[in-house]
Prior knowledge:
Elements (H helix, E strand, L loop, with lengths): L2 H13 L7 H8 L3 H13 L4 E4 L3 E4 L12 H17 L2 H17 L5 H5 L19 H10 L1 E8 L5 E13 L4 E7 L4 E6 L3 E10 L4 H20 L19 H5 L1
Antiparallel strand pairs: 1-2, 3-4, 3-7, 4-5, 5-6
Helix pairs in contact: 2-3, 4-5
Amino acid sequence: MQRAERLLDMIQSLRRRRRPVTAETLAGELDVSVRTVYRDIGALVRQGVPVRGEAGIGYVLDAGFDLPPLMLSPDEIEAVLVGMRWLAERADPALARAAEDVVSKVAAVLPPHLKPILLDGALFAAAHPGDVPADQVDVAAVRAAIRNGCKLSIRYSDESGQATQRMIWPIGMTFYDRVRIVVAWCELRQAFRHFRTDRITGLVSLEQRYPARRADLFRRWQKEERAKEEAALAPQPRTTAPASSLDRPEATSASAAG
């Protein structure tokens, strides 16, 4: 690996972390010696990269530092391409268009020798079959409510077709091959619930913010989901068959009289 490429990988490794990372950890990731990491950290600092820290404690990259988009590696270009093509096939129309725009913008700033990877890449996401359930509302409004931390009033039809009116606090969305799921706190159930976007039959976006931080709610939801998974994987207690008439204790005279 050339030094310039290694320095770029080191910046990427630091940028992925919010807490200081030790030189030993960086050395293991980059497959170099700890001494080389110290030299490379010094080189980055001399070039103006805002790396803070010291030997034995760890290093962290100051917030706000970024690299120009043309510094993408071939693997990163393919990751962008596959991710955006996957979204273009499975997201709502507004997000699908945004995915196509991302690919176009990345292509516009790539150097000539990297453009074929993006424009002629052999990696793609399979197209949907034609029986994917269609959304009845503008899912872009749901995503906007998630970003802004605002409430949504929705009409929802469950699997049996029963319709209910809900006031929800949307905190996230999960994308599956055929459906999209809104993760939200439901005021009606006073609990976290999952709503399929294709079963939302009506939607009103409210300017009212819900009285909690979205990040805090999301962590609570994750904790509950992990607890459910752990409970499902835990060994189930053995059930004891009821005693038969042959081995059931005989009643005492007192209990028989009682």
